[in-house]
Structure formats: C-alpha cells, structure tokens
Specification:
It is built from eleven helices and four strands, in the order ββαααββαααααααα. By secondary structure, it is mainly alpha-helical. The longest helix is centred in the middle third of the chain and has 25 residues, at 117-141. It is globular, with a radius of gyration of 18 Å.
Length: 264
C-alpha cells in the first residue's frame, strides 16, 4: 500500500493513497465516507464505528446493484448475515437514509430508495450551479496546497483509471469535485455542495458507470485544473459546464436503463 495522507476541514476528514489503490474508507461528517481526497499532514485516522463499517458495506452493495431499488433492507437478516446485533444495523440504515440511498417506512422494513427523476433533475441543477460557483471562488481562494491536491487526484485518475474497480475510481472522481468545493474557501458552500453530492451519489454513479471513458474524464478534469492554475474564474465555470452539461441526461438514461432491466 502506498503512502497514506490526510487533510482535514473542521471535522471533515479526507484520505488519499498516493501511488497505490485506495482500499480503506475514511470517516467524515458532511460527505459519504467513501470519498478519497488529498492531504496536508499525516494524522492517525479515527477508527470507523461498527455502524459506519456496516453502512459502507451496504452502500457499496446498493451502488453495485446487489440490492436493487425497492428491495427490503431487513435488520434481522443483515444482523444474522454479519453476526452482529441489530443496534448497529439500525444506525447504519439511518446513515444511508440521510444519504438518500434507503427509504425509511413507518412500521415496515426500510427499502432501497426508488429513483424519482424529477427530484434528481432538480437536485442536479442545483449541484451544477454549486460546482460552477465553487470553481470560480477556488480560482481566487485556492492555496498552492489546494492545487497540488487537485493535481494529485487528476494524476491518480490518469494512471489508474482502467486498472482499479470502477466504484473506487468513481469515489476518486468525486473527491476531485469535493476538493474544489473545499478550495473555494467558503465553508457554507462546501457543506451545501456535500449535501447535494450525497443526495445524488447513487444517480451519479449510475451515470458514470454507463459513460466510462478515461480520455474524456481525464481531459475534462485537466481543463478544470488548468483554469484554476490560471486563476481564470470564467474559464473554470466554462470547464465545469462542459464537464457536467450532460449530467442530467446521463442520469435519466441510466435510470431508464436500470428500470428496463428491473422490469425484464
């Protein structure tokens, strides 16, 4: 395993493995724990709680389609399979419900959340606006350390894109966008961006899985990074727009594709 590094914003923790494949998950509050990101200094990572470990396992099951939308998430069955009590299972399900991956139901078992395209489309519109604002502000406020973090993420993607698990690479991709929001220097913006990114986590993964293309992804992220190095806010907004302009259509296509396969 490569060098482990971490950086921290208030109580939010982000992790990166340099010259290695990400294999551990990170503890943080605002964003889903699977993000990879970059680092300022070496810090001993806090150990995940059992509930957080279970949530991470269930989250990846959902993203991989092992637990399909509408499927019951039964505490008793999961507790039996994992040989743990139902208390951490219940807390793990609460974590996933806050991320929009699980839907809680009164007096009934929770289910894997069903996709509501109009709701997702509305949230996507907000997320893109937040991404553009983040990039523009980051052009003014990003430190050299911030830019080096972004460079390292892009370099990692370029080197490992086709070599590691698509879900792991998706997490690295999302860490790039998270790092830009943090580099904006606006805590409220970074937290709001994290909230919407969390809500769209599954939808964005479905879309990314359908459109995996190393050259396109690396080139677009590089264009964003180049604009930030030039401290050109408008160019950064334009690069973000180019990168995300088809996101809503991609998500719609992915959801339709998933729905067709569920019906057959």
């Amino acid at each position: 395993m490569g060098e482990r590094s971490e950086w921290k914003l208030d109580n939010q923790h982000f992790l990166v493995y340099q010259n290695s494949i990400p294999s551990e998950r990170v503890r943080f509050c605002v964003l889903p724990r699977m993000f990879s990101a970059l680092i300022v200094q070496e810090i001993r990572m806090p150990k995940e709680t059992l509930a957080e470990q279970i949530a991470n396992h269930l989250r990846r099951d959902i993203l991989r389609g092992n637990r399909a939308p509408g499927m019951s998430v039964k505490e008793r069955d999961i507790a039996s399979d994992m040989n743990v009590s139902r208390t951490p299972i219940r807390e793990a399900i609460r974590i996933l419900s806050k991320e929009g991956l699980v839907e809680l139901r009164p007096s009934r078992s929770p289910i894997v959340a069903l996709s509501n395209f109009q709701e997702i489309a509305d949230q996507t519109e907000v997320l893109i606006a937040l991404e553009k604002l983040s990039a523009e502000l980051a052009c003014k406020n990003a430190t050299e350390a911030d830019l080096k973090r972004l460079e390292s993420i892009v370099a990692y993607m370029a080197e490992h894109y086709n070599a590691i698990d698509p879900l792991d690479m998706f997490e690295v991709d999302m860490s790039f966008h998270t790092a830009i929001a943090v580099a904006s220097g606006n805590k409220a913006l970074a937290e709001t961006h994290g909230t919407f990114l969390r809500r769209l986590w599954r939808a964005r993964y479905l879309a990314a899985r359908q459109r995996r293309n190393r050259e396109r992804v690396v080139n677009q992220h590089t264009a964003i990074l180049d604009a930030m190095h030039a401290r050109d806010g408008q160019a950064a907004r334009d690069a973000i727009n180019n990168h995300l302009q088809n996101l809503a259509d991609d998500i719609k296509s992915a959801i339709q594709h998933e729905t067709v396969h569920q019906d057959t």
